[in-house]
Amino acid sequence: MLSSTPVPVRAATLDPVVVTATRSARPKSQLAASVTVITADQIAATGATRLDEVLRNAVGLQTTSSGPAGAIATPSIRGSEGAQVLVLLDGIRLNSPQNGQFNLSNLPVALSEIERIEVLRGPASALYGTNALAGVIQIFTRTPDTEPQTTLSWSEGRFETRDLSFSTTRRKDNMRYRLGAGLDRSQGYRTNSDLDQTNLEGMLGFDLGGGYDLSLSGFYLDKENGVPGSTAWPSPQARQQDKNTLAALTLTGPAGPLAITLRQSYERRRNDYRDPGGWTPVDDTHIVETFGTELSAAWQRGAHNILFGGDFYDDKLDSTASGNHDENRWSLFGQDQIEITSRLSLLLGLRYDAHSEFNNELSPRAAALFSLTESTRLRASVSRAFRAPTLNDRYWPATSFARGNPDLDPETAWEYELALDQQLGDRGELTLAAFRRDAKDLIDWRADSSFVWSPVNVNEARIWGAEMELDLQLCELLKSGANYTYLYPKDRATDRFLDNKARHQVHLFLEVGPVKEARLRLDGRYLKYYADATRDGTGYVVLDASFSRPFVLDNGITFDARITLKNLLDKDYEENSGYPMPPRELFAGITTYF
Q1: For 111, 245, 416, 456, which has the most beta carbons within 10 A of its beta carbon?
Q2: Which residues pair with 519 in a beta bridge?
Q3: Partner residues linked to 87 by β-bridges
Q4: Torsion-angle region of residue 513: left (phi > 0), alpha (psi -120 to 50) or beta?
């Protein structure tokens, strides 16, 4: 028998706790930074089946997908490139040292295992070093509760798409664990766009007593997909396989007045790419191994919250195309959050990064938060950030038409921001922000006099823009929100707009329910790009809808039934020029809890 007793839903909070902005847990209202928090309940409400679908609705964040499930998808924050956004999973770096970016399609955990996502907009190299030139996206997985819980999810969709995931968690006495697995299959909507992906993940933690905690986490991804290429240059025989392994051991605890965090991490990425039908047949294997050590210490003394530490990373590349290479880097950083008065707080940070192969970098950061009233806050910040050249940039194999450049310097940028946060009672919050980023030594691939393409430090860019974010609880059964991002991204050398950047980006949503325990959510987004060689400057509108209802069986087992309709209007559009996005898709699924 079925009961209409509702399944418990995580309550929304107007002042969530944020970790990414300061590497310490603080309420969002106490941060002099622009942060968006996406909760597990919000992810479920959208009916999203891909990480890029979750992120693309965040203010100031643009995702660029090459279309089918499993295709490369990268984030852009405030007009950045994908390699200028650092992506973390429970504090562990996911960006590839080989190409600098993280493919959002390669997330090694199911969306149902995500507790929340924090999107930090603005440079964060003062805390995180390279890749955090434009911001940071951090994904937090679920923390085991005292009561054991097992979750089983299944969904079916158009193009023979099937998603399955399983997880079980428990906390007992001084031990906790989480185990999970996922399976994604799709035939795709283009020739050679199929996907076969499996992921495994686990965490084992121990409370050692005396305030000490030890945890071991591991993630594994095995993925094979077709690479259809662009509509202008199709590759009907190209295949790619990724096998990624990630493991981390983390120890936290006191050391006198200090709170210490020590983390050891290891990642191995293997990529096999074959295209026997190309102009030049390709059969390459790339293996990248990264060993990392991070140590940080937090200390509270009076009005000062001090954080300091350092890290060391070693990257090894073994490639049939680029050869064998080994690079390492280390850093030292410090940060002080100072409460000057009950209304004014300051944040000062500085990081020094040393690299084995190119110039060292110094990344300062200063920010201020002023509470004008109990519900109105003014924020201002200035910071410097950088992105190191990638292994591909430096060691791309020399051919008759392309080669790497081992003499590249890091990309650098200064960013300035002024923002206003207005609390709207218990109904919601309004945020307004304006920013300007001045970047130089941007790496661009250009042809020399012999028509050989190579990366060089030539570009300078100025990107300024504005953001608006509004969340409203209109009544008990009706929630709505909107955000808007305006960008003006110019290449200062050519006075041309940067390619593939949206001038206007709007997102609206309306959520109704629970009405008889059912919820309906509608999402709409509008993007208008600057005209370039591949775009005419016109915009497009895409609508998505999701309907869900929980049920409880007499034996206490609960489940959510969900129907999702993506691209409701069946719009033809492209996020990456030449790569059509999916047409209208219908998904139906069930998530069971027991």
Answers
A1: 111
A2: 548
A3: 137
A4: left
Residues 296-347 have pLDDT tens digits of 999 999 999 999 999 999 999 999 999 999 999 999 999 999 999 999 999 9
- What torsion, rounded to 10 degrees, do the Cα atoms 28, 31, 36, 40 define? -30
Beta strands in 173-211 (DSSP E): 175-186, 195-209
Q: Cα 184 to chain center, whole Å?
A: 20
C-alpha distances (whole Å) from 381 to each of 296, 339, 436 are 24, 16, 11
Q: What is the value of pTM for the model shown?
A: 0.96
DSSP output for 258-279: EEEEEEEEEEEEEEEEEETTSS
Q: Which amino acid type is present at position 68?
A: P
What pLDDT was estimated at residue 146? Answer: 82
Q: Which residues of the chain have pLDDT under 50?
A: 1-12
Find the helix or strand (DSSP H, E) in which 575 lies.
strand 574-576
How many residues are listed for the chain in this entry? Answer: 594
pLDDT in the model for residue 6? 39
* pLDDT of 14: 67
Phi, psi of 538 (to 5 degrees): -80, 160
Residue 305 and residue 282 in contact, taking contact as beta carbons nearer than 8 Å? no
Q: Which pairing describes strands 361-371 and 26-27: parallel, antiparallel, or unpaired? A: unpaired
Q: Residues 561, 587: contact at Cβ < 8 Å?
A: no
What is the rounded CA–CA span in Å between residue 454 and residue 133? Answer: 23
The enclosing H or E element of 46 equals helix 40-46
Strands (E), 376-495: 376-387, 411-423, 428-447, 453-475, 478-491
- Angle CA(553)–CA(557)–CA(563) in degrees, nearest 5? 80
User: 3-class SS at 203?
Assistant: strand
Q: 10 Å Cβ neighbour count for 2?
A: 9
